[in-house]
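Extended Data, panel c. Modelled sequence:
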Amino acid sequence: MLSSSDKDIKSVMSELSKFGVEAAYIVPTETGLRKSILDAHEGFRNFLNRNQIHDYETQSKGPDSKVTLEGYYLDTKNYIKTKITLYRPETKSGDPRIWFSKLSSYASPQNLIAVFVYNHELYVVNTSDEEVWNSRDISSSPLYDLLAKLSTKTNDVESELLGKLVAIHKRGFVPSTTNADSGVGDTLEQLLGILRNSNAKPDYKGIELKCSRISSRTRVSTNRNTLFSKVPNWELSALKNGEQIIKKYGYFPRETPDLLALHVTLSNRKNAQNLFLAVDNSSYVVENLHEDKNQINKVVLWKLNDLESELERKHEKTFWIKAETKKISNVEHFQYRFVEATTTPMVSNFGTLVETGSITMDYTFSQKVRESGKKYTRDHGYLWKIHPSDFDLLFPPRRVFDLSNLQIA
């Protein structure tokens, strides 16, 4: 379990995010070091597969199917060559394994090991070794050199869209097209000439648009950023649809005392409904659980693979647009002020950020009444969100544009 490491994984991810770099993580146990066997958990396997290093799914069991790679340990002065073995034993259902040669001389039990891919080779860093980890700031060190090579370069400037946003900014405060929370995004899409539809593709020529409100005084947003909406895996879930969820865990709001609602946030801590999220790294799923008198009940679950894929698909290129807001004649108005541009997110961090409470999920259920008088359940998505203070743990360094000072050629 990554949570058992002697190093705060979130702090490591935070430092790596400054370089726009992601890693896979392994925490060796005492038994694992002694027997030269480490479990290749699914997050690690996905990392290798995504970087075209190895696919355990296609690997046969047994010693004849072992794969040996060359890799490197990093210390404060050297790249130390090592052998890395990937295999599936014939016993224990062929659970994927990995072993780094002479790891016991490089790391101790419960150390947090970060693994990087560069030029199709693996680089292994013991982040629990403070001397090695702190060498990332020393220009002559191997770790500094590696991170510099891996650092994300974002050279493309989406000048067409920025030019349109500058023109919209110069119009000053424009009235919202709706009095709903979605007004800040709906209004901008209308100004850009984007038609509303159910298409899952990015909003503007390959660029996803995400709008949020900021204070005109502080120009800071405290609201969580919505990453995407993703329904649970109903086939594997205990409850099979939103109607079952709201009937079991919903409440009656004051404004509609006869109609159930469930507008709540789920995190790694229990909420008022005793609902919470938990990451099962062995099955590589995120579960919504419910605690009732010290008994844990399963509600629904998502495969982490599906969540990571959705994050990667949705945010290959994203403009996070910030709008100042004020009321004029009791109508909300927006002036779109800042753009934060990001590219491919560090998807390997997603599960850990759910586990630490940085990423949350909102239920948005409410009961409505048809003309016939029959009640039905309406939902506005299963919204996965991240707090602005943790944003850099998921996305490489942002390019920030102030639309009031931006000159577009």
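Confidence is low (pLDDT under 50) at residues 152-157. This feature is highlighted in the accompanying rendering.
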